[in-house]
Amino acid sequence: MRGIEAVLKKWADNPLITRKQTSKTYVPTVYTEEQAKELEVRYKDITDGGKEVHNLLLESNKVPRQSSP
Fold this sequence. Notes:
By secondary structure, the protein is mainly α. It has one domain. Helix content is about 70%, strand content about 0%. Helix 1 packs antiparallel against helix 2. The longest helix has about 35 residues. The chain is elongated. The chain starts with a helix and ends in a 7-residue tail after the last helix.
């Protein structure tokens, strides 16, 4: 479970977009370009993390289960 929590924490800790300028406004085209770059990175992280979570779940299923008394 700790491994899965670590993967999910990575996703939650990284914002979808970070401001590179000090001004609080963006021109819509610049914002769209920046967001597209950030989303591409995020989608890759989620895809890779999803594979890692899948492998962790497969490993946890290999642990023998004991019945409760």
